[in-house]
């Protein structure tokens, strides 16, 4: 059996909405990690926003044989802003591999089977409060 190479790739998808048509100035405010807009509104300073950090690990390791069930672990993802509230996983996989994340893509610790040899890339997006 040919080994399968797995590359864990993570990305951060957190964003902070600041509303429509607001232009931030360099004017300092008394609000800590925020800035004052030209309209006088105080909004988060996007340069100081800390996005959650997704972390995904594969229990079986980076190289496995076809027909292996992989156990992904995303529960070590972190956020400085509070607990992780949602997870969204995806897998880039060979077109011949038809398996999905079980029980769902929103589970922090899903499983899936690698049925055919090839390259698989696991992605995890996390959102915090």
In brief:
With 129 residues, this protein is an all-beta fold.
Structural notes for this entry:
The protein has no helices and nine strands. It has 129 residues and is mainly beta. It has a domain at 4-13 and 50-128: Immunoglobulin-like (Sandwich). Strands 5-1-9-7 form a four-stranded mixed β-sheet, with no helix packed on it. It is elongated, with a radius of gyration of 20 Å. The model is unreliable at 1-31 (pLDDT under 50).
Span of the ends, CA to CA: 45 Å
Strand percentage lies at: 25-35%
Strand line-up in the sheet with most strands:
5-1-9-7
The helix/strand series, from N terminus to C terminus, equals EEEEEEEEE
Figure out the total of helices. 0
| Structural category | mainly beta
Which CATH-level-2 architecture of the domain at 4-13 and 50-128?
Sandwich
CATH third-level topology of the domain at 4-13 and 50-128: Immunoglobulin-like
> Can you tell me the CATH class of the domain at 4-13 and 50-128?
Mainly Beta
Q: Can you tell me the residue ranges where pLDDT is under 50 for at least 5 consecutive residues?
A: 1-31
Topology:
Elements (H helix, E strand, L loop, with lengths): L3 E5 L25 E3 L5 E3 L12 E2 L4 E2 L3 E6 L10 E9 L18 E4 L4 E10 L1
Parallel strand pairs: 1-9
Antiparallel strand pairs: 1-5, 2-3, 4-6, 6-8, 7-9
Observed structural traits:
single chain, 129 residues, mainly beta, four-stranded mixed beta sheet, three-stranded antiparallel beta sheet, 9 strands
């Amino acid at each position: 059996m040919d080994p399968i190479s797995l590359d864990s790739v993570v990305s951060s998808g957190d964003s902070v909405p600041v509303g429509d048509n607001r232009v931030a100035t360099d004017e300092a405010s008394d609000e800590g990690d925020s800035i004052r807009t030209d309209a006088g509104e105080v909004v988060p300073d996007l340069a100081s926003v800390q996005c959650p950090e997704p972390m995904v690990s594969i229990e079986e390791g980076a190289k496995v044989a076809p027909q292996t069930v992989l156990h992904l672990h995303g529960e070590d993802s972190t956020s400085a802003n509070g607990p992780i509230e949602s997870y969204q996983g995806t897998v880039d996989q060979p077109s011949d591999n038809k398996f999905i994340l079980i029980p769902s893509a929103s589970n922090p610790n899903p499983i899936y089977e690698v049925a055919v040899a090839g390259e698989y890339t696991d992605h995890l997006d996390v959102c915090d409060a």
